[in-house]
Amino acid sequence: VDSFIVSKKDGHCVALGCSDVGDDVNINSMLVRWSDQNNPFDWGPSSTNTSGGQVLRAGSRILGGVSTKDEVIIFTDSAVYSMRFIGPPDVFSFTLITDGVGLVGQRAVGSAASAVFFMGNDGFYVYTGSFQPLECPVVNYVFDDFNRSQSSKIFTALSSGLSEMSWFYPSSLSFEPDRYVTYNYEENVWYYGSMDMSALSELSGSSSSLNRTSWQDAVVFD
Fold this sequence. Notes:
By secondary structure, this protein is mainly beta. The chain contains 1 helix and 16 strands. The protein has one helix at about 140-145; strands spanning about 5, 10-20, 30-35, 50-55, 60-65, 70-75, 80-85, 90-100, 110, 115-120, 125, 130-135, 155-160, 165-170, 180-185, 190-195. It starts with a strand and ends in a 28-residue tail after the last strand. The model has no long low-confidence stretch (mean pLDDT about 90).
């Protein structure tokens, strides 16, 4: 499986880019499969469960997805799909939201305030039932100095208490995320910054510089 999420609305586990039924070796990079409802152990479609699958057509590889309260948004390398629960017999419907825009990296997408924010190959976008680009005055600063070969390391960081969605990304001369760009979706403003990764060492024990490789919103821990 390339990536894995849970559909919040209906309790199906969803595999994105995975092997087909009866094939434990080959991966179809455009195949979406889901388990039985509220049962992550049953993936074989039958008349007594809701397991199933669907091959997407726009793109060559599914890069990732995010689950919202109403649907699952799936990103390929060139398109965005909506996956909605409709119940048996089809279980899910798939709608192509937009073609020609892909996700820059598997974790470059986040959900907040009933919206999905993501970093594409050439800019930032938002989905709120319809798809539109975000006006970003610092987009050239980000994309003109960006190591695309390490784009899989980009990750979003939601700070819901401050109404902020951030993207940590590697600059052109870095192999790790050493910069961030932040969008305040409440005030519609952008800002950016950088991090000194040089002091990051397993032997140092501590560091005064800011080094970050993961993030959890403060709603879990104060």
